Amino acid sequence: MSIGISLIVLVAAVLHASWNALLRGGGDRLWSMTVMCISIAVACALMAPFLPVPARASWGCVALSALLHTGYNLFLVRTYREGDLGQTYPIARGASPLLVSLGAAIFARELPDVLSLTGVLLVSGGIVALAFQGRAIGRKTLLFALGTGCFIGAYSVTDGLGVRLSGAPLGYTVWMCLSWGLLAPASYIMLRDARTLVRGRQEMLVAAGGGLASLLAYGIVIFAMARGAMGPVSALRETSVVFAAVIGRIFLRERLSRYRITACLVVATGAILIGHAG
């Protein structure tokens, strides 16, 4: 993976940590996530007419990824209900690079070299270590965080395959995110009702801004997976936990201990190895 691709994935990691902190800090996370997805759908609908249509072979991946993202949304909201950002976010994100590397090896025959694999292992290990600081983790918290990680791994591999079949990375991203964005309000209405979707202007603008940050972050990742191995790209994206730890400390007043700083350094070392392998 080239240094240029590595750098833009790190930008995506910052964006990803930012919108997750916004979601975790919100009072009604299901509503916030739904408005984020609506803003994603609107943005994608505006862009779709000006982009190439993905090849027919990739549309199955578009549909499957939209469903997996919907499941991820619901699990993520429940995960943040059970625990704080600094504990649940690392568990959810730490499992996914290994799952993506495994899926890429099985479905795309991508076998990482020694440096890349070492980097992936360091990133995953450091991320998971961030969640364990002498605090007990409830069974529900662990269950939903790991379930979220499984959804991340599944949709990442699906999109990694889909974008390569599509012949049009931007077109694939837009149509997949549009499909996903349309499923979110439908899920919200089924779980609650349509009337409570419309709220104060400031609340909606903040949530919509988080959605656009999420769209840009994942668009960068899909672009990177079209040009680099899925496992290392996924691992670099998950360095967002380092940024999430800092954001959680500054804005959510969560504790940033020496243990957590050490784990962040392990993650950073893994990211350097992945970049060096490029």
Please give a structural write-up:
This protein has about 280 residues and is mainly alpha-helical. It contains eleven helices and no strands. Helix content is about 80%, strand content about 0%. About 55% of the residues are buried. The N and C termini lie close together (about 5 Å). It is globular, with a radius of gyration of 18 Å. It has helices at about 5-25, 30-45, 60-80, 85-105, 115-130, 140-165, 170-190, 200-225, 230-235, 240-250, 260-275.
Features:
single chain; 278 residues; globular
Order of helices and strands: HHHHHHHHHHH
Helix content: over 70%
Major sheet summary line:
none
N- and C-termini, Cα separation = 4 Å
Number of strands: 0
- Note the total helix count: 11
Q: Unreliable stretches, pLDDT < 50, 5 or more residues?
A: none
| Rg measurement, Å | 18 Å
Report the average pLDDT across residues.
81
Q: Tell me, briefly, the overall form.
A: globular
In terms of DSSP E residues, the strand content is under 5%
Structural class by secondary-structure content: mainly alpha
